[in-house]
Amino acid sequence: MSQTIKFFLNGQKQLASVRPDMTVLDWLRSAPRLTGTKEGCAEGDCGACSVLIGDPAGDSVRYHAANSCILAMGQLDGRAIVTVEGLKTEILHPVQAAMAENGSSQCGFCTPGIVISLAGLAASTAHPGDHEIHDALAGNLCRCTGYRPIVEAARKVAGAGGAPIPSLEVTAFAEMEPQKAVSADGSTFHQPQTLADLLQLRKDRPDALLLGGGTDLGVALADYHTDWDEVISLAHVREMRAIGETDNYLSFGAAVTWEEVLARVAGSYPSFATLIRRFGSTQIRSMGTIGGNIGTASPIGDGPPALIALGADVELASLNGRRFMALEDFFLDYRKTELRADEVIASVSIPKPKPGQDFRVYKISKRYDQDISTVCAAFSVTREDGQVRSARIAFGGMAATPRRAVAAEQALVGTQFDAKAVEACAAAITATFKPLDDWRGSADYRLQVAANLVERFWRDVSGETVEVMAL
Amino acid sequence: MTDNTPHTVQRSIVGKGIAHDSAARHVAGEANYIDDMPELPGTLHAAFVLSPVAHGRLKSIDPAQALAMEGVAGVWWARDVPGHNEVGPILHGETLFAEDIVDHEGRVIAVVAARDFETAYRAAKKVKVDIEPLEPVLDIEEAHRRRSYVLPPQEVIDGDAATAIAGAPHVFSGTLHMGGQDHFYLETQIAYAIPGENGEMLVHSSTQHPTEVQHHVALILGLHANAVECQVRRMGGGFGGKESQATIIAGAAALVAAKTGKPCKLRLKRRDDMAGTGKRHDYVANWKVGVDSRGRIRGLDVEYLARAGNLPDLTGPVITRTLTHTDNAYHIPHARFIGHACKTNTVSNTAFRGFGGPQGILTIENIIDTIARELQLDPNNVRAINYYGDETGAVTPYGQPVEDNRLIEVTEAVLASADWRQRRAEIDAHNAVNPVIRRGLAMMPVKFGISFNLTSLNQAGALVHVYLDGSIFLNHGGTEMGQGLFVKVAQVVAEVFQVELDMVRISSTATGKVPNTSATAASTGSDLNGMAAFKAATAIKARMTAVAAEHFGVQEGTIVYREGRVHADNESISFGELAKMAWLKRVQLSEAGHYATPKIHWDGKAMKGRPFFYFTYGAAVTEVAVDTLTGETRCLRADILQDVGSPLNPAIDLGQIEGAFVQGMGWLTCEELWWDKTGRLRTVGPSTYKIPGSRDVPPEFNVRILDNAPNREETVFRSKAIGEPPLMLGVSVWLAIRDAIASLAQGAVAPRLDAPATPENVLRAVNALKQRMKKDADDSR
What is the spatial distance between Cα A40 and Cα B197, in angstroms, rounded to a whole number? Predict the structure, then answer.
């Protein structure tokens, strides 16, 4: 088994014989002493540690920003990484130049991470608008500037038509296939390429950690809470990277990232796309996967309420075969799921929109971007001639698991979806849930907002502007 | 006096919007912070053992499991301190390591050092601390009920407030809860201590107060101050959080270095930083005001309860600034302001940009807004008739005359540029037809006093050398935390010598070069250090001018410095040639400048005097939208006008204004500190503690610096301070949210809104307003 992780670092082939569960940030700052990448929080939230990760995509290399503080070295194998030092050639990268000229830095500590995020945007989008600029910056905190000069610099680069990442030929990846496994100092990182290989590994090593994007598991790693002695990465399993479509369904392999889901659902479910844009940050969405978000079974994950209201199914696979179930049945209790020790989540299927269907999902949090929901509410109502035929309503943040509100659904079915029905639905929500008090909100607040969101949904589908961010 | 008077010097570099000196290195990742410095061989990494409980008796510390780990160098605590276990910035008895009692969750108990950071951090979790739990006091009002304080109360009294209020036509009262704020500098606290020979210790510290680090490290190690040097190149943000708190980190790193003889770096993980170091004080203000029917204040009584936390730290002067800013822009004929420093089992609060001023200004703006709404008057009119001025009065409750009043000027200008009248009408029209999403608009002024309240702190030193090639070395007592102080002071020196800015080398702040400095704080960095550097440079220049006059055979008064050359009539030599010439004549080309702010005095017992050299003025008009179903808010537009005197560097100042406003907005909207019932702070990282992001900045954000407004006092080039004042303009966001909520009652009822205006607090205020309307309707039925 290989003891060496192989990747491109700022365009050069790099070998690293370190534990694959060492964080990329710790490695960058120690061995090659690339200290431009900073630790600001070690939980993937401030963006000071941002780097660009490159993968071959057709005839070019596609880069996305990622949080190196919660990224394990094993996850770099077979890929390319670009740090802030790699953006400067003989001259500053256009993003660096625009920021230096524009008063975009004060203390400078967040600056390299912001440069990375904006360089990622400049490489992927020729003429981004303000919304795309804010999306690119949502994972980067600056405490000094108030952001205005940073956004100005991004607009300048956008006006010039973007800028490439200093070149790495895609052909170089030919000798950079992800290795089947890397192991050093007692940490083993498996990278199965097929579902069959994965299922065999899963059976043989039921205690190994299943790693999607690592945006949840990586936080414990960054805090030195855990060691990963054995990891099975899902990132290269072909079947789990697939996106499919039938007449009635969109299906996503479990290792499809949220950025990829976003691109695919934007047309069918714009409200879901809006939610996904608030899902962590560009960095987090580029790492985190739809399967990981379900598998981690957080009561405040934002994917499940939307997916449950949409009527999504999960596919679970093992060497014994496959089984399908409605997503709401997958969650048993706090962080407990139907997943057996030999199983993996293989895919998620989302029904396509039906005539007469209105779908909306609302996330309430202290900050609009890059925050965790206090309450996340998803509504899907299908009407025929004004009458509600079916309704699915699901919440996050209201119980130990993402939960459907069946009584609230029943309060709508058969009605004309009028003010009286809204009131009955809200009352049913109040009666259904007993949420917790915590730093994101009190139980009383959660209950009231969850109920009030029925009115928002009602106003929304009748064409009112219902969110302050839409103004 | 001519050449020594800053504002008479012809300006070619001062006043220009020059970029931050480190900008090109910031963007390239080439600006080094302490954690980026190459580590010396043998460097140890340290981590703190922090108290897991809010209050308890520390019975024993068992380091055995930690010491058994490979690579662990040792564990040290209070008993190991060779000198004094002291970090109090003002008072004695504030310990670095807990002794018998742990008095907040996150209290430093011990320090562990190991060969690498990860080992140290893990070993710290293996140190067993046996703590017998004691009942904690977590609530400010509970502490006040128990008379649990860290300091005696402070009181500003002017006239007879009780009588004035009792005799007033209208009396209003209320309670305002104001949340605290974590600094959330992006670079967490860090120090790197390097032991030298003969007991010497060099400490690289991310601190706003190198002298305090130097003195405390000496105290802790039992050394004279002359054995310790503290150096600071730059901080990754400070905001007050690295004023007194940095000594905790530097002290522990130096202790390990002294004990082991090896260099030691101590960098806090974000969660340890947030749990273990102080924040902005949260306050409760109980107030009562008497007014006439026009809303003119007759008398005001405010009782502040400030959360000091477990120790005094800087709470005393923080409260002083609250009491001296409760007037804000308003003349209050009869005043009684009292501040209690409540002792709680939470981390000791500390300096934070504004230093108590924001809480005072939020309180009075809340009062003014309440008066206007309850009397159904225009809030802007109520403000205007209470402004300091000829008709009202021009002396503050603490006795300082307001001599440089620009209140009318800034408010009228900002109301005009923000298009107040038309937008007020548009917003009212919007609210008339939109039941759920309401808009709000508010204007507010800020008057902020510049100088440390404690007169003795208002001094600074600078060291300037001119080398024989004409290059200049600059050092001063101020520290660079991103605010652009270094470039501003360099501009001052370049201006004096009329050389290119890049001829002035900016250097790390170092206690061995400039001693006995004050913290870079209270917005005074450029006022104090700029003037000290000006004096040093001017003294050298005077000596060089004598040499030039002799060389050219002319009067000194005819010598002109311009564009790197020294001119006499038609002849000239380069600045470097003059330097060489001066050296050959054995003329001193180095000078230590010292500056002490004139005119100021303060009687801390009577709470009277002239604590501030001058005031700065600013005003903001801000528009928000509020979702009355969820309490979510958004700031849509802000227009700001800020007085900076004659700015040293308007580009840097613009950045300070924008950044401060957004930080103030964060304090009052999304940033919420949350302790659980056991006293554990649960908001200890950016996933739980939310500072503003780029999308939270108002999409229309118009910031202007007041034109043609030189300081009437003799500050450096007639500039004014900028660091803190615009933070308080963030209060306008909170006022606009109140306005939006009040629209539900057609503006006739004052909402009761706590700060921060989180969605939850906004919805609570909406609910309370609706209940009061219903009650009023029921009562009148």
Answer: 34
ipTM score for this prediction = 0.97
CATH of A361-470, one of 1.10.8.640, 3.40.50.10740, 3.30.390.50, 3.40.50.150: 3.30.390.50
Q: Which two tokens stand for residue A53?
A: 């990760």
Summarize the confidence of residues A10-35 as an average pLDDT. 97
- Residue B743 confidence (pLDDT): 96
Q: What's the domain range around B739?
A: 399-450+613-781
pLDDT in tens, B415-463: 999 999 999 999 999 999 999 999 999 999 999 999 999 999 999 999 9
- Transcribe B295-325 into DSSP letters: --EEEEEEEEEEEEESS-TTHHHHHHHHHTT
Judging contacts by C-beta atoms under 8 Å, the chain A residues touching residue B32 are 35
Chain B residues near residue A99 by CB distance under 8 angstroms:
23, 26-27
Q: Does B691 touch chain A (CB under 8 A)?
A: yes
CATH 1.10.150.120 placement within chain A: 94-159
Q: Domain boundary residue among B568, B596, B624?
A: B596
Contact B521, B240 (CB under 8 A): yes
Q: B236 — contact with chain A (CB < 8 Å)?
A: yes
Q: Is the dihedral of CA A309, A312, A313, A315 positive or negative?
A: negative
Of B22, B29, B759, the CB nearest to A112: B29
Do A469 and B695 make contact, defined as CB atoms within 8 angstroms? yes
Strand order in the sheet with B170-178: B149-158, B334-343, B297-309, B283-291, B170-178
Note the pTM of the prediction, 2 decimals. 0.98
Residue B648 tokens read as 């040293």
User: Any CB–CB contact under 8 A between A140 and chain B?
Assistant: yes
Q: How far apart are CA B92 and CA B78, in angstroms?
A: 16
Annotate B485-507 with b (16+ C-beta within 10 A) or e (fewer).
bbbbbbbbbbbbbbbebebbebb
Q: Are residues B625 and B746 in the same domain?
A: yes
Considering B562, B596, B630, which residue would you say is the last residue of a domain? B596
Q: Do B121 and A36 touch (CB under 8 A)?
A: no
Look at residue B276 and tell me if it is in a domain: no
| CA dist., res. B576 & res. B626, Å (int) | 62
- In this model, does residue B4 exceed pLDDT 70? no
pLDDT higher than threshold 90 for residue A397:
yes
**Nearest-by-Cβ selection for B687 from A43, A441, A468:** A43
Distance separating alpha carbons of residues A131 and B16, to the nearest angstrom: 33
Helix (H) or strand (E) holding A448, with range, is: helix A443-461
Which residue in chain B is spatially nearest to A106 when comparing CA positions? B482
Quick check: B662 contacting A, CB < 8 Å? yes
Task: Quote the Cα angle for B115-B118-B121, to 5°.
Answer: 100
Edge-first strand order for the sheet with A5-9 is A12-16, A5-9, A80-82, A50-57, A60-67
Q: What is the fold of A94-159?
A: DNA polymerase; domain 1 (1.10.150)
Residue B96 lies in a domain: no
Question: Which ranges of B375-474 does DSSP label H, i.e. alpha helix?
Answer: 379-386, 407-417, 420-433
CA gyration radius for chain A? 23
Give the mutation candidate from B186, B280, B635, B737 for the A interface (greatest A CB count, under 10 A). Answer: B186
- In a shared domain, residues B510 and B534: yes
Contact at CB, A111 and B27, closer than 8 angstroms: yes
A90, A143, A228: best mutation site toward chain B, by most B Cβ within 10 Å?
A143
C-alpha–C-alpha distance, residues B362 and B180, integer Å = 13
Strand ranges of the sheet holding B504-506, from the earlier edge strand across to the other edge: B504-506, B472-476, B459-466, B590-596
SS3 A367: coil
Cα–Cα distance measured from residue A95 to residue A63, given in angstroms and rounded to the nearest whole number: 15
